[in-house]
Amino acid sequence: MLKPPPQALGPAQAATHPAFALAAADYLALHQPLDDKGRYLHFDELRHRWPPTLVPVLCWSMVKSARLKAQSPLLPLDEPVRWAAWMATPQIHKAITLVDQQATSAALEYMTGRIGEKAHFNYLLNDLIEDEAISSSQLEGAATTTLVAKDLLKRKRLPRTPDERMILGNYRMMKFAWEQRRAPLSVQLIEQMHEVGVAGIDDEKYAPGQFRNHDQVVVLDGDGNVVHTPPPAQGLETRLQRLVEWVNVDPVGVEAPGYLHPLIRAIALHFAIGFEHPFRDGNGRVARALFYWFMFKSDYCAFRYIAISVLLKNAPVKYGRSYLCTETDDLDLTYFIDYQCAVIVRAVSSFSEAYTRSLADAQSFEHWLRGSELYAHLNEHQRAVLQVARSGSEREFTAVTVKENLGCSYNTASAALNGLVDLDLFIKNKRGREWVFRMVDQAAIQRMWTRP
Question: Partner of 399 for a Cys bridge, out of 92, 126, 413, 430, CB 3.0 to 4.6 A?
């Protein structure tokens, strides 16, 4: 269990503490918000790093005093209202810089524009869209493997288990977040987000699109301990309306004193939904979907392909701990924002690396293809499918998946695949009612079509 901080002493009170005079210089050296490595650590971590000769409450008082001076109020929460505060850390600055450089709509347009025949790039992007829906479900306990989940979404088959229904619901919720990116936030939109995401999974458990009324929910850790008791159901819609008004305030320009970067607002919205826990279940999924909704709304469209839940799923304890650190330290949102920014830096970097690999692979393949006799035998759709198969990002193809990824008709997709079979580039086998196509050995293709 995380150890909450002691009540910090005010500067005057700390200075009169008997122990302060004995090591005043040592205590004053701690009067800074970050540790010597630039980290924003909770008392539970800091207490192990202070010299044993110093009094922990005095050490914490120095740190807390420095943080209070650096913080700004951010978000009204709870009833009666308490203001969550924050300060910018090096990690937060890094994340803001990275999303401004690599996650805007303009950056995405530049990326896709650099790839010549970019139809195959749609396969990579659609694959990345699926990742967030799958990993967000797995974070909430869905036991379906990523491979099976990909098959569910790509082939558009009916879900067979509650876990598959959860994944499909998350996929629909992310799609809904994208479609509603121009709409203002409202209490009704939050309800709709939940209904889209959980309807049909277990309606009795989730109560799709309905806020909890008399139910008092609690959040448990892995050992069954209560780690968060949300505010009561009474007054829930009023508190959510207050959150809606905070989100919908017209953004001010960068030069204005009240400017707040969209990334910080999106993360604060994520936290607020988790804090309120407005539904009986499915709150984490809605909170993360609303984070994406706000990033889409703020013109960071590359977030359609940036899956933060893939990384949150790999370290769920740290994710939960970032909530706890904020709640146990006077709603200091810096802990949660700093952790989310660390995850976002890794997620955006992973997306950029996937794009760089795809670009290099596409250029290499196009160079070989244009120098071979095969080029003249392929149309644009066939070149795209062959490139995807050769890169290994997709191993099986159907007319339905090609149609969806390349935005063509079913007949065009079917003709493209059968044409690849006629050229001895692909083989096909019947699976149920549909034909499944796979590429033959790459080396054999290059031997067959490389000019002497």
Answer: 413
**pTM for the whole thing?**
0.85
Residue 282 · residue 274 · CB < 8 Å: no
Cα angle at 322 between 317 and 323, to 5 degrees?
100
371-449 under CATH 3.10.450.50, yes or no: no
Dist. CA 271–CA 297, nearest whole Å? 18
Q: Longest Cα pair distance anywhere in the chain, in angstroms? A: 89
Under CATH, which architecture does the 88-352 domain have?
Answer: Orthogonal Bundle (1.10)
Q: Which tokens hold the place of 23?
A: 């090591």
Return residue ranges of the chain for CATH 1.10.10.10: 371-449
CA angle, residues 270, 225, 74, in degrees to nearest 5: 25
CA dist., res. 191 & res. 286, Å (int): 9
pLDDT by residue, tens only, the chain of 452 residues: 788 999 999 989 999 999 999 999 999 999 999 999 999 999 999 999 999 999 999 999 999 999 999 999 999 999 899 999 999 999 999 999 999 999 998 888 887 666 544 555 666 667 777 788 888 888 888 778 887 888 788 777 888 888 899 999 999 999 999 999 999 999 999 999 999 999 999 888 899 999 998 767 777 666 667 777 889 999 999 999 999 999 998 777 777 777 899 999 999 999 999 999 999 999 999 999 999 999 999 999 999 888 898 888 888 889 989 999 999 999 999 999 999 999 999 999 998 888 787 777 777 777 777 778 888 899 988 988 888 888 777 788 999 888 888 888 999 999 999 999 999 999 999 988 889 999 998 777 777 776 55
**Main-chain phi, psi angles of 301, to 5 degrees:** -70, -20
CA distances to 152, 215, 262, 402 from 410, rounded to whole Å, are 19, 49, 40, 8
Residues of CATH 1.10.3290.10 domain(s) within the chain? Answer: 88-352
Backbone angles phi, psi at 72, to 5 degrees: -130, 145
* Distance (Å, whole) CA 83 – CA 74: 7
